[in-house]
Amino acid sequence: MPYKDTYGPLFDSEAVKNMQRIIEVTDARIVVSSSWRYLGLETLQRMWHDRNLPGSIVGITPLHTDDDKLLEADLSQLDVITADMFSSSRGNEIKAYFDEVLEVSINTQRYIILDDLKDVLPEQEDHFLRIDPIVGITEEDVEKAVNRLVSENRDLMDRIILEESPVGSNLFLPEITSAMRNCQRLAITYQSYDMLTAREFEIEPFALRYFGRRWYVLAHTDFHSSLYLYALDRMKTVETTGKTFKLPANFSAQDHFSHYFGVMITEEKVETICLKTTDLRAKYLRSLPLHHSQKETIPNHFEYRLVPTPDFLNALRAMGTEIEVLRPIWLGKRFLQEAKEMVAKYEKQGL
User: Fold this and answer.
1) Could you tell me the residue ranges of all domains in the chain?
2) b/e string for 331-346 if b means 16 or more Cβ within 10 A?
3) What is the pTM of this model?
């Protein structure tokens, strides 16, 4: 998969989906205050259109010099004058956007600042939400952002409900993201649901994945030849070891999961899965594809190229009688056998 286009690096697809949820729930508009604004408003809007990104960019914050820093600087010592003396804080520029561009008081507006660095004014702190630069916008960030954006409308607070992560599923996120950033090995105590006792071992955290309301870390260990996924809610302890590891230069989390749906990774081969759906289910799949490889070959007929893992098969099962597996034959036969076994169970109850 490509990492960039003519505009620059591509955004993480999961983070984009989560941003879309914020926009859909709150009807928010986007104002860019990051270095992307140097492209200019028209170029950014064109990029948004070309990449088919959610929402719309309505503005960019102005670039301001910080007069106080310039007045305090000793201009005779040019070698000690740094670039930040000529630029205002992000918070001042955000305030200036409201004051000078919109010509409204920032204190009367509902807004949220999403950034990986906290460079805001004191009065903007309640509107700031730190985004992890490695993970990007997560489902938890979506919940926090929506709650803050609607907080001024208290009558709506109990009428907007988002899925929450189970307790413990994100307990060790700060430690893991820090280790990922610094390529540090972690010592964890782990107990999966099929283990009678917990085990202690070290991992090299490569990537994080959020799926099914749970967090997973993709990591290398000394006893697995390939990368393996560990659920954070099954971790008892996580500690730094002081040891480092080298992340392969060609590693890409997007590529690693490209042929998979969910978090289960198997040694099975990529296959072509063909489905026939009802008219109603087809509308759902068109608006929210099940996998990035999804193609509608003819109306209501969908094709996927991926590894048919248990996670993917469960997603198909969840659609019940709204779908029919056309290919591969073995998968159609498996679902047929499962349907017969289910019928037999209910017939035993005399239903």
Assistant:
1) 4-159, 173-256, 271-348
2) beeeeeeeeeeeeeee
3) 0.66
